[in-house]
Amino acid sequence: MSDPRDPRDRQADALIDHLQREQGGRLTIFLGAAPGVGKTYTMLSRARELRRQGRDVVVGIVETHGRGETAALTEGLEILPRHRVAYLGRWLDEMDLDALLARRPQIALVDELAHRNAPGSRHERRWQDVIELLDAGIDVHTTINIQHLESLNDVVHRITGVRVSETVPDIVFDRLRDIVLVDLPPRELIERLHQGKVYLPEQASQALQAFFSPSNLIALRELAMQTAADRVDSDLREDQAARGLPGMPLRRRVLVAIDGLGTSEYLVRAARRIAERRDAPWSVVTVQADKVDDARQREIDQAFALARRLGADTEVLRGARIADALLDHAAQNGASTLVLGRTRERPVARMFNRTLTQQILQRGAHYELVIISTPEARARARRGTADARGWWSSSDAGFAALASLLAVGMAWLAERWLGLEDVSMVFIVAVVLVAARTRMAAAVVVALLSFLAYNFFFIEPRFTFAIGARQGVATVLLFLVAALVAGRLASRLRMQVVALRAANTHATALQALGRELAVAADLGQVLVAGRKALARALSAEPWLRVQGREEPADAVLPEIDRAAADWAQQHGQATGRHTDTLAGAARWFLPLQGDRGTLGVLGLRFDDGAARLLPEQRRLAEAMAEDIAQAVVRTRLVAELEDARVGGETERLRSALLSSVSHDLRSPLASMIGSASSLASYWNAMGEDDRRSLLDTIQQEGERLDRYIQNLLDMTRLGHSGLTLNRDWIGVDELLGSAVTRLQRYQPEVRVQTTVAADVPPVWVHPALIEQAVFNVLENAGKFSPPDEPVQVEAKLVDGALRIDVRDRGPGIPEDERSRIFDMFYSVERGDRGRHGTGLGLAICQGMVGAHGGSVQALPGPDGRGTVIRITLPLLTPTPQEPA
């Protein structure tokens, strides 16, 4: 939609933006299509030239990447020492931002704008350092490749297949003062790669097969040129606007205006040929200041559909003055050529206005204006049928006559009973009311009738059209002028109100749909939200089908409706009622278009009494269908990402399971087999103690193997919701004592101190499961607690829940890994893995406690040493259906 503000307001805004950009430092970007084109070399060459001119230039940071010719250009320039940052036992060199701010040169050279700073730096990204330098009033020269611009990240990914992680937001370009395009033909860049001037030879060969393929370089080069051209064109338009001058577009864009009066599709096809010959982008627009009739709207919709198929952008502009709306839109979008149909003058417009063509010719001097007519349009102009179309109707005539009669009656009553001497305002009010409710033509007719009635009934001598006094002539003439002006202003205001109301209804419906779609998590929710929003906004019965899923699922469509829906989905075009394809269907079907073709189809059944589809309904339905399609694409991408994540997690767990099984099954089996083999071979040669030792080994390793298999079975039951809680009352001291006794059978060297508060009551739990959970935590703590330090267990009531804290004095767990120790097969040498762990104990504990409605947390020790595993259980009581 074009900007409806006054040109002086737009000039003021542009001037304010221009002055804001002038404040602070000025940013110059050396833009390249790919690494190795010579951005740093060009920036340093420019810096040396500025230095010779007496400018204060300082090198904040420059990356030469070992290129001798680039390093040579830094000689003679002041280079600030780099700031060293310690990270993971290494020292990283970064730009010293504080030293550069303190030095405060006129120009600072900061290479590689998209660079990520080392952890511990003030800013995460180098472009944030540049923003701080600009805010301090320091001019900055920097370099960037086109693939690092945030808005082009997806485009570059589609071109190269490489997702660039280090990007610069487009808001940085808002601070841009100058842009320097550093270009190098792809052949020369590839030759530099072969020569080892960009990467090492082994890296260069890989780059040539991937990112630096000729096709990729050509596409990136075109993208860089387009970005530079857009920036230059935008700067020119903003500068012209700030100076109050009309826009002067540099790029050749073709703008086509249609009106739905018989030549729309002809204009679209002609403009397509013009744009194709000039290799220029093109747009098709229409300006609507008032509600248009069905025939015109149908022609506009068909022309828009044709334009989109031919590759044009389409837009509906709102504005009381067509010429203003067109010229504003052309200036804002950089159009250089305007294509118009031959303007047909209307009787009313001929008295007050120039034609649209004349207005554009008068005001659009710097545009190339192409005026196209057709034989059919000329024939209609000769027959005079076009003038009768859309500007007058029998209802307008009746309303104008009734308003004139009422005005005469009200004026007579005001003069007779209120003593009002000048009743001209009564007639002016009648003209304004008519103009506010109908079209300008009816207002003009009322003004003329009111002029005659005022003269005939209320100007001396009365009941004649003669005027007795000179001042009477002036009175009636001024009345006519005032009535016409007031009528025109009221009509224009009405048209603006109608246009704003239509735009507000459209925007409100789309906003409501957007809110509902934003919270839709899957395809089913998207379809339900879309159907409800469509029914509410369009007063229609919607039907949706996407990926074989229908909403509502129980809807029964006639055979012809099914055929129309299938045709719309297969061909990507609207079908059914209100179209020329399968028009016998009860519904109007719209295809839902996605990035990979047609996703599904939308069917709308309106009131049976509606012979035609209203233009506002058509546009709103198409816009809502597009939003629903985008939501479907979003949910599909989310589902694909989730599937990929689940697949990766499954593969990780599978690998961990294989690793765990290979270690934790083979180790005890190897010990058991070795001990049994020794006993079988050397029984007689062994003493009683040796035989007992080997038998103990077999027993311990067998029990270890049994625990491991039991853990696997428990995790299987937890993972498949096969865990059944057989609750019973048990004392907490008995529960903890059983777990400690069991632990000491396996780890007799571990000491455990147990403290149970006196007010802790018995708990209603599954005793075996909670004992297993506590045992797993104790076993985990015993593995890492020092031999001379006991494991402490404390049970008490906190906020109406049972809290069991198990403390060890081991090495502790880093904060970022405390939640991961509850993952299955946790593989680092912490948690319950260790040398003899399975990585399942704490995961089983969390599942068993969670089945009781409780929670398990890993916390640091009270004095910074060791770990506290906290089990929290709610105090439940049996329901009447459960036995106590």
Which helices and strands, and how do they pair?
Blueprint: H1 7-22, E1 27-32, H2 39-52, E2 57-61, H3 68-72, E3 78-79, E4 83-87, E5 90-94, H4 97-103, E6 107-110, H5 126-135, E7 139-145, H6 153-160, E8 176-182, H7 186-194, H8 201-209, H9 214-242, E9 254-257, H10 264-278, E10 282-288, H11 294-309, E11 313-318, H12 322-333, E12 337-341, H13 347-352, H14 356-363, E13 368-372, H15 375-383, H16 394-417, H17 424-437, H18 440-458, H19 470-518, H20 523-538, E14 541-546, E15 549-551, H21 559-571, E16 575-576, E17 588-594, E18 597-605, H22 615-664, H23 666-682, H24 688-719, E19 728-730, H25 732-746, E20 752-756, E21 763-765, H26 767-784, E22 791-798, E23 801-808, H27 841-851, E24 855-860, E25 867-874
Parallel strand pairs: 1-7, 1-8, 2-3, 2-6, 6-7, 9-10, 9-12, 10-11, 12-13, 20-22
Antiparallel strand pairs: 4-5, 14-15, 14-18, 16-17, 17-18, 19-21, 22-23, 23-25, 24-25
Highlighted features:
alpha/beta; 884 residues; 27 helices; six-stranded parallel β-sheet; 15% strand
Give a structural overview.
The chain is an alpha/beta fold and 884 residues long. A six-stranded parallel β-sheet has the order 3-2-6-7-1-8, sandwiched between helices. A five-stranded parallel β-sheet has the order 11-10-9-12-13, with helices on both faces. A hairpin with a 2-residue loop joins strand 22 (791-798) and strand 23. Helix 1 (7-22) packs across helix 9 (214-242), helix 19 (470-518) packs antiparallel against helix 20 and helix 19 packs parallel to helix 22 (615-664). Mean pLDDT is 77; it is low at 1-5, 345-353, 382-392 and 827-836.
